[in-house]
Structures are given as structure tokens and as C-alpha cells.
Amino acid sequence: MSLRTSSAICLLGILLLIFPVYAIFEDLESGTRAEGIAGAFTAIADDALAIHFNPSGLADIENSQAYAFYKSLFSGVDDNLHSAAFNFAYPQRKWGTFGISIYESGITLLSQKSLTLAHGFNILEDLAFGYSLSGYNVSIENFGQGYAFGLDVGFLAKIYRRWRVGFFAHNLNMPTMGKDDKSYLPRLLNVGIAYSPLPGINSCFDVSKEVGKDFRVMAGQELEIIPKTSLIGLTLRAGVSTEPVRFAFGCGISLKMINIDYALFTHSELPLTHNVGLNITF
Predict the structure, then answer these.
(1) Which pTM was predicted?
(2) Most buried pick, 52, 105, 127, 159, via CB within 10 A?
(3) What is the pLDDT along the chain (282 residues), one digit of tens a residue?
């Protein structure tokens, strides 16, 4: 092992000790609307955020969407710890919906970037399938870069009109990063169920298992107070997740084709996480 590689691994280890809840690409499943319900989004992923939460949900998109967000993780922790992304979804009646996402996250010394191409389409009237391919890049200042590629798949089924069941598998091909000491990127399985008694009301429940970690449980509620068909629509969100226990709150304001979202995440020991997003429908 070269001195340069050893130094890079040592620096990365120090960074992970400083930020123990923020590992490589651990924050890839990010999005303002989804985080407002604590990430319990697998079964209701029906906008451009579906690219990273469940690509099969892209099949529900009827018009082109552009979704961008910026998240200050734990209020930056005095080192600009953040995540940002731009997602675009383009529906085609015959071929389903295609999506692309550009993601960037990190701190001053460590930068993580990914480019994701996704596709979601209906297999049957109430059953959709989706997949995505991601290229990952990690850059450590003055120490070099690493690259990897990942494959995701997802299913989404609608049951009795009011129920939805989703399944999402992340990094199925078990991508690794590093030459001498290889590290696996996060690999996880999500299963979610959602109940929607009326349009704009979603009760969601997810179970997530990441390799090498305990099961996570996420539950959230999305409630449309003022319908989006009004001049100004208002949606409220709240949720809770385990491992660790965190509470989430969020809201969305819609102005015709524009949606502005905000989400707040708590942590037992670290400062609050703020996320602001903008979704434009064409």
C-alpha cells in the first residue's frame, strides 16, 4: 500500500470519526418532501425524487418535472456539511418516464458526487418497475479520487386504489471504492406501505435494512391542508425514524406549477438539519 493511499484512508477515517452519522454516500436518499415524512417515501415516490427513493415511482409522473434542493446537514457542523441535488424527470407515454439526477455532498475536505440515470414504467396497470444506474465519485482534497458504479431497482404496486406497496434495492451490484483497501458503498433494501384515503392525504410506513446495520423503521404523515388546485396550496408533513431516533417536520407551498418545500430533521446529539427544495412542473 502506498503512503499516499494510506494517508487518504487515515484522513477519511478521521473524517468519519468526526462525523460518525455521515459515511460515504450515506445521505444519497435525500429530498425535501421525502425528509418531511422522515424518509418513509418508498410507497409514495411519485415525483422526480423517485430517482433515488424508488425509480418505479417515475411511472406516475404525467408532466416533466425539475426538482432541486439544498440541505445543511446538522446546520453545517461548522464545516459546511451539506447535500445538494438537481433531478429532472421526462415522461414518455409509450416508454415510461426517464430521469436524471446530479448530486453533490460533503464538507470542506471531502466531496462526494454522483450522476444517476433512471427509468420507470408500468408493467401492468397497477404495477410499475424502475431501475437506475449511478456513477459515484469521492474526492479528498490533496489525496486523490475514487470511482464506482451502482445499480438500483424498485417496484411499486397499487392495491384497492387506496393502498400502495413499494420495494427498493440500492446498490445491488455491491460497488466498492478504493484499490488496496476496498470499502463497500451503502447497500440497502427498503419496503414501504402507504394508505391514501383521500387525494393529498398519505400515511406512510417504511422498513429499511442496510448491510451491516440494524433495521430502521420510518413512519410519516402527509396532509394537504389547502388543495394544490387552489391559487396557493399548503401541505403539512411530519414523521419519525429509528436508528437513531429522529423527528421530522415539513411543509409545502404550491403556486400553480411551482412547489416550494421545507423539511426539518432533529438529532439526539447534533444540531438541526434544514432542507429547502423547489419543484417545477412543465
Answers:
(1) 0.89
(2) 52
(3) 343 444 444 444 444 444 444 466 777 788 999 999 999 999 999 999 999 999 999 999 999 999 999 998 876 555 678 899 999 999 998 899 999 999 999 877 788 999 999 999 999 999 999 999 999 998 887 778 889 999 999 999 999 889 999 999 999 999 998 777 788 899 999 999 999 999 899 999 999 999 989 999 999 999 999 998 888 999 999 999 998 899 999 999 999 899 999 999 998 888 899 999 999 999
Q: Which three cell numbers stand for residue 53?
A: 427513493
Place of cell 502506498: 2
Domain around 123 = 3-281
Q: For cell 484512508, what's the residue? A: 9
Tally of structural domains, the chain: 1
With cell 441535488, the residue in question is 85
Count of residues making up the chain: 282
CATH code of the domain containing 35? 2.40.160.40
